[in-house]
Amino acid sequence: MFLENYCRISDDKISFTRQQASDFAKQIADDFNPLHDINAKRFCVPGDLLFSLILERAGLHQEMSFRFSGMVTDATTLSIPTEITNTARIVDDKQKECLNMSVAGAYTKSSRTIAALTRAYVEFSGHTFPHILVDLMKKNKVMINPTRPMIMYESMSIELDSLDFEDITLRLSSTTLAIEGKRGNACLSFDLVSQDKIIGHGKKFMLLSGLRDYCQETIDNIVTQYNNTKAQYIAEKS
Fold first, then answer.
1. Phi first, then psi: what are they for 6, rounded to 5°?
2. Which of 28, 67, 103, 148 would bridge 155 by S-S if both were Cys, CB 3.0 to 4.6 A apart?
3. Which residues contact residue 117 at a Cβ distance below 8 angstroms, ignoring those fewer than 6 apart?
4. 77: pLDDT strictly greater than 90
């Protein structure tokens, strides 16, 4: 269980310290979203950590979809099932839903298969900003609020033709951005590739808030700040 350092498990209840969640974002996902900083006012646990834990506990199904319905923080205690038939709700200790999901098709609990997909997806997902989203915003001539750069993970889905793999990568296939006023819904479509063969597809949806007219200088400053934060973290850990 490579996730044991990034959560606390007690009597089938799962919780997170800010340090654990932040370490997962930075060390595993290479994700330096300020929402995952330990001192963030609106701190939240990375959605990719929840995704990884669900797969590790309940297994990998050929078809899976996840929708986040509530923010998970260091004050949240979750119940994550060890088996899912058709649908499931991930709730906290007050029965408030944080995530709902549906599954279909064959499934596996192979630790090697699940670890391979988890690491590949988390690596892809963690590089959403700035690698993918900056180009998408530029194409649509909008950008996020530079003083409160809010990018939230909304949902994702995957469909696999086969569960018989131990090595897999994700390859971006297309991107779209639907804009409604000052909010945008980004869709990142990707292929799942094993041994140079496409064995599945997936989509990740993200919410962008505080949209305004695109300004290259401002975007450059946001990206520079993001990269400086990452470089400083790496330097402190080396």
1. -115, 15
2. 67
3. 55, 60, 168, 192
4. yes
Residue corresponding to tokens 């869709």: 187
For residue 155, the cross-strand partners are 67, 205
Cα angle 62, 65, 68; round to 5: 150
- As a whole number, the mean pLDDT across the chain is 93
Q: What is the pLDDT of residues 85-134, one digit of tens each?
A: 999 999 998 899 999 999 999 999 999 999 999 999 999 988 899 989 99
Tell me which residue of 153, 161, 149 sits closest to 66, measured CA to CA: 153
> Are 192 and 199 spatial neighbours (Cβ–Cβ below 8 Å)?
yes
CB burial of residue 217 (10 Å; 0-12, 13-18, 19+)? exposed
- Go through the domains of the chain in sequence order and give each one's CATH number: 4-237 (2.40.160)
User: Cβ distance 177 to 107 under 8 Å?
Assistant: no
Residue written as token pair 């909304």: 154
First to last CA, the chain: 25
| Residue tagged 């690596």 (tokens) | 123
CA 82/CA 85 separation, integer angstroms = 10
Contact of 154 with 67, CB cutoff 8 Å: yes
In b/e form, how buried is each residue of 73-104, taking b as 16+ CB within 10 angstroms?
bbebebebeeebeeebebbbeeeeebbbbebe
57: its two tokens: 């506990």
Q: Quote the tokens at residue 129.
A: 């900003």
What residues form DSSP beta bridges with 197? 194
